[in-house]
Amino acid sequence: MLVREWSEPLLLGGQVLLILLLAYLLQRLVARALGRLGERYRLPSEFLLPIRVGSRWFILGGALIMVLERFGVSATVMWTAFSGFVAVAAVAFFAIWSVLSNLFCAVLILLVAPFRLGDVVEIIDSADKPGVKGRVTDINMLYTTLEETNEQGETALVQVPNSLFFQKAVRRWRGTELSAFNAHPPFEK
To answer: Which residue segment(s) compose the domain that 110 sits in?
Structure first.
């Protein structure tokens, strides 16, 4: 009698543990495959990190859905909740499109590498107006930080939205080509 009472909860617990174990192993396998892919094709770790995190969330989300199904949660209820979350996410996407644009452009900057840390870049605004020119000191997910030097030799940090590098023409000097930067100071008249 006692065996019958506990057999069903123990079986359910075993199934849940098996689902979680398989999800963990799958996540580790995907992380290892991404690591090898990054080494083989020399992809920057900044590019692989979002893919690794996204795959982890996808696998754990799938495992959570399977666990909830084992506990009797209806697929219709899960689909309704999921579609509600997607609708809210779509509204949020349109609300923060500028931020997402800068995030996507940051990924492109890291992948395509039109410039790197230490390079001198100039964003050409128009023919009659000088643009922003300086040494790249930081590239983060929203801004690229440039160090400008004025005529008196004073420096200032300028944060340029990443999307601007894809909307304007950009002139670049590699970090080793310092003479080109020194010959053309940022605030030429």
So the answer is: 74-184
pTM over 0.90: no
How large is the greatest C-alpha to C-alpha distance in the chain, in angstroms?
A: 94
Asked if 136 and 116 count as a contact pair (C-beta separation under 8 A), the reply is yes
- CA distances (Å), 124 to each of 1, 10, 130, 154, in order? 82, 68, 7, 22
Q: In whole angstroms, how far apart are CA 39 and each of 1, 43, 45, 53, 167?
A: 58, 7, 9, 18, 32
User: Which residues are bridge partners to 171 per DSSP?
Assistant: 122
Tell me: the pLDDT tens digits for 150-181? 888 899 999 999 999 999 888 899 876 555 44
Residue 87 and residue 45 share a domain: no
Same domain, yes or no: 85 and 144: yes
CB 85 within 8 A of CB 77: no
